[in-house]
Amino acid sequence: MVIYEVNLNIDIGIFDEYKSWLTLHMKEMMSFKGFLKADLCDDIENDRGLTEQAVTKNLTALYLIDSEKNLQHYFDHYAKSMRDDGIKQFGNQFRATRKIFKVSKSFNNSSVNEK
Fold this sequence. Notes:
The structure is a single chain. The chain is α+β, with helices and mostly antiparallel strands and about 120 residues long. It has one domain. About 40% of the residues lie in helices and about 30% in strands. It is built from 5 helices and 4 strands; from the N terminus they run E-H-E-H-E-H-H-E-H. Strands 2-3-1-4 form a 4-stranded antiparallel β-sheet. The longest helix has 15 residues. The two termini are about 25 Å apart.
C-alpha cells in the first residue's frame, strides 16, 4: 500500500471555489487503477488562528493506492493532465507539494487488542 499526499496552499480569495473543484478532481482520481480511497483534509494545525489578514489557507488530499506500480502508472499516463487542469482553472493562485509514503504497518481497533 502507498499513500500519496498532496499538500495545497490556496489563495484565500479562491479557497471555496478551489475546494469545490478539488472535490470533483479527487473523485476523478478514484477512477484510476489501484486508487482505493481518497480523503480531503482541512489543515487545522496550519490554519489555526488565521486572522482576517490571512492570504492563504491549506488543504491536504490523501490517496491510498494498492501499489507503487499503480501510482507510477498514474504518474506516467495521467498526472500531467490532472495537474494541468488545476493550473488552467486557477493559475498561480495555489501551490502544491507532494509526498509518497509506503505503508509498512497498519493498525485498526481490532488489531490493537491482538497479542
